[in-house]
Amino acid sequence: MKITSALSLFLVISLPLLVVAQKHDSLRAVLDTVRGEQKVKTLNELFRENLYHDPVKALGYSREALNLATEIEDKRGMAASYNNLGVAYRNQGALDKALEYYITSLKIYESLKNQEGVATTKNNIANIYSMKKDYGQAMRYLEDSYAIFSKLGDQNKVIGTMNNLGNLYNDIQLFEKAHKYLSEAYQLSEKNGVKYADPLNNIGNIYFKQGNYDKAIEQYEKALAIEKDQGSRLGLLNVITNLGIAYTKAKNSTFAETYLAQAVLLCKELHAFTSLPAIYKASAENYFNQGKMKEAYEMLLKYDDEREKIYGEQSSRNIAQMEMVLDFQEKERELEVLKKESEIQRLELRNSRLFIVMVILGVFFVLAIINLLYRDRKRKLISP
């Protein structure tokens, strides 16, 4: 059964709900006074402030930001908007669309040589591959992201990528390595003075995979307290889903049903449909544990339907095609660089040859002048 991993899609820490509301009001006030690139930036900030609390409103801000950025040819704003759209669609379960937006964002950030943007977008691309169980590609993008953020010295984003690496190692059942990354991520967040629920939630996932449901629930409860304090509704959804699944496995039907019902409601409110397959599958098992076969069968049908929407064969093919396009574009860029290097070398060689010719011509010219002066002097000496 799939446990929900808490992934830092934006690699930012959620603020308490009151602070978020105050910041949202402040940004809305700013939005009425700014123009151009500053307005694009403000719209993207409003997306981030609303993502975990009102994702539908957040999506509206991101679309508005992209339209304006495109109109005024603000490439950095376009890259940020495409990345944000990718996050929004990923949360809704539209993985193909999310990857399409991420790849577009990555291309723009690479053209701008914006390393922070490249690292953030690669982190998000890794998330899609991890969800598709293509762990090799996920590791490739995530390690690139981690290396860039470490080089930039951005501690919050290093925490996010460490958290995601921990998830990935957990997925491939390298539990010791997973626990190491997640523990270090949590310790680093504590050192920075910020409560960070994701590593605790994901450490709970490790215990869950090892069949230690009591310890898993203990970690989820700690994460739940932080998410409630911060008011992150998407964070709450992740943890509540995991609690519902863990209580199902522990055969505590009452708690399982309570948490799973809450999770379904939150999924629909937040349009976060990627969590629905896991919730419906756990609900089917919970009904089965109670001997409610009709309800269990109905939940399995819902599970199959939602799973096909998100993880179907067509979705996998579309991702593979987009990856081929991305690889081809990367090869084209490499070829272009080689061509430029070859052109530079050719020009340097041409300039060197030209310099040699000029030097030789210069020598001939000097010799000609000397010869002319010598002849003129000789004529003067022999003239009567």
Automatic annotation (TrEMBL):
It comes from Chryseosolibacter indicus. It is found in: Cytoplasm. The chain crosses the membrane at residues 354-374. SMART domains: TPR. The keyword Endoplasmic reticulum does not apply. InterPro entries: Bac_ResReg_Asp_Phosphatase, TPR-like_helical_dom_sf, TPR_rpt. The keyword Iron does not apply. This is Tetratricopeptide repeat protein. PROSITE patterns: TPR, TPR_REGION. Belongs to the Rap family. Keywords: Cytoplasm, Membrane, Repeat, Signal, TPR repeat, Transmembrane, Transmembrane helix. TPR repeats lie at residues 79-112, 159-192, 197-230. SUPFAM superfamilies: TPR-like. Pfam families: TPR_12 (PF13424). Its main location: cytoplasm. Residues 1-21 form the signal peptide.
